[in-house]
Amino acid sequence: MGILDRFRLDGKTALVTGAGRGIGQGYAHALAEAGADVAIVDIDGDAARRVAEEIRALGRRSLAIIADVTRKADIRRMVDTIIQEWGKLDIGVNNAGIGGWANAEDMPEEEWDRVINVNLKGVFLCAQAEARVMIPRRSGKIINTASMSGTIVNRPQNQVAYNASKAGVIHLTRSMAAEWAKYGICVNSISPGYTYTPLVESPEVRDMIPQWLKDIPMGRMAQVSDLQGAVVYLASEASDYVTGHDLVIDGGYTVW
Ligand SMILES: NC(=O)c1ccc[n+]([C@@H]2O[C@H](COP(=O)([O-])OP(=O)(O)OC[C@H]3O[C@@H](n4cnc5c(N)ncnc54)[C@H](O)[C@@H]3O)[C@@H](O)[C@H]2O)c1
Predict the structure, then answer these.
(1) Which position among 27, 162, 233, 253 bears the catalytic label?
(2) Ligand 1 pocket test: which of 23, 74, 162 has the largest number of ligand atoms within 8 Å of its C-beta?
(3) What domains lie within the chain, and their CATH numbers?
(4) Is the CB of 199 under 6 A from ligand 1?
(5) Does the CB atom of residue 27 touch ligand 1 within 6 A?
(6) SS3 labels along the chain
(7) Is 154 in the pocket of ligand 1 (CB under 6 A)?
(8) Distance of CA 254 from the midpoint of ligand 1 (Å)
(9) 162 catalytic residue (yes or no)
(10) 68 CB less than 6 Å from ligand 1?
């Protein structure tokens, strides 16, 4: 098979959490363009339905699944729905995540719990549910969204819970990769640098951008399209010997 054919995802089924907008929406489009049917999972039902329509317009099957990644019952229903509708799950992209800024000494416990629950526990619950249906088939690709914040400490904003959650995702990814390699399941993470999405569009965040740009060797933030090739690679057989890897896509931020 030619090298470009090994990136094709025809006949594969995928889910992407947090796919109602931003990076997850871009991932869903990329997987669908490469040939996969893609379930759009989001806590925001209108957004999920909108993106599912976009995927159908590309000629692929899609499902809009409303789920909160912190709720085990929702996640069980997410995977059950895909198995009922499509019979199998080949690719799980665990991408839903939230930000939050606070000085460590002022961080309310509830805020810590909120960020860790969505960003770290949510990835664990989704990956666990996905692996349970992949293990009997001895095949699967799990891709978690971490962040360069799992490797470096951003400045000037303080985000101790976010940084810790993303470092957790990177090592959770390695741990699951080690456990599930024997079942033919690859588990990897993608760590974006600063990326233009609704997450960074608030006025508070926008004011920070000129300072961020000085720390990026390439001198620009990422567009969602800068991340799309990576998710297709990690979902495809072109990456069959890659597991436990954190693929950093940050314009060189972590180099400095
Ligand atoms: N934008 C960046 O600069 C950047 C950089 C590095 C990593 N990331 C990570 O990328 C991922 C996506 O970020 P984004 O910028 O696209 O964010 P976004 O806010 O634009 O989109 C996140 C999506 O996740 C959904 N969501 C939030 N909580 C959820 C929950 N509990 N259950 C289900 N869905 C939920 C939201 O409804 C939204 O549609 C996150 O994990 C984020 O931490 C983003």
Answers:
(1) 162
(2) 23
(3) 7-193+227-248 (3.40.50.720)
(4) yes
(5) no
(6) CCCHHHHCCCCCEEEEECCCCHHHHHHHHHHHHCCCEEEEEECCHHHHHHHHHHHHHCCCCEEEEECCCCCHHHHHHHHHHHHHHHCCCCEEEECCCCCCCECHHHCCHHHHHHHHHHHHHHHHHHHHHHHHHHHHHCCEEEEEECCHHHCCCCCCCCEHHHHHHHHHHHHHHHHHHHHHHHHCEEEEEEEECCECCHHHCCHHHHCCHHHHHHCCCCCCCECCHHHHHHHHHHHCHHHCCCCCCEEEECCCHHHC
(7) no
(8) 21
(9) yes
(10) yes
Q: Running along the chain, 256 residues long, what does each successive block of 10 average in pLDDT?
A: 97 98 98 99 98 98 98 98 98 97 96 98 99 98 98 97 98 99 99 91 86 97 98 98 98 97
